[in-house]
Description:
This protein is of the alpha+beta class. It has helices at 24-31, 87-94, 104-116, 121-131, 140-156, and strands spanning 2-9, 12-19, 50-53, 56-59, 72-74. It folds into two domains: 2-78, Roll (Ubiquitin-like (UB roll)), CATH 3.10.20.30; 87-156, DNA polymerase, domain 1 (Orthogonal Bundle). Helix 3 (104-116) packs antiparallel against helix 4 (121-131). The model has no long low-confidence stretch (mean pLDDT 95). Bound molecules: FE2/S2 (inorganic) cluster (2 copies). Residues 98-104, 134-137 line the site of one FE2/S2 (inorganic) cluster.
Amino acid sequence: MTRAVSLVVNGRPYTAETEDRTPLCDVLRHRLRLTGTHVGCEQGVCGACTVLVDGEPVRSCLMLAVQADGCRIETVEGLATEGALAPMQQALMAEHGLQCGFCTPGVLMSLAYAERARLTAEETVSEVLAGHLCRCTGYVGIRRAIERHWKTEEAAG
Ligand code: FES
Ligand code: FES
């Protein structure tokens, strides 16, 4: 059975016709062409598909698109403003917090959540280590990027 779902993604309203069994990540990637959300394990383990749904981090491979009907979705495509990378993206780049980049969109969405929730740098590192598998970095660069970014934010008040 198919039905129309209405989503506000990165501030833009969308309506997509989808089957009841289709996960949110597939609608984002295949219908809306927002391919920044990556899909790895498809079983809630790797964290690559993490997006924010009404401000909360969600594994978009585990949420059906119909469950997100009427929700506000944020994906990695919404982080940069007018072509300028968000400060957390810049910090990841500066500290070599990514290599292949497969995990990076999901990591960034968890970092966006942590920043808004005003988690400390230490809590944010734990959140990322617990919630995201990265095969490349050993997490060292990601940890350095978080510390660098959080230090800058603290200095800015
Ligand atoms: S693809 Fe969703 S958690 Fe791995
Ligand atoms: S940068 Fe390759 S999986 Fe994390």
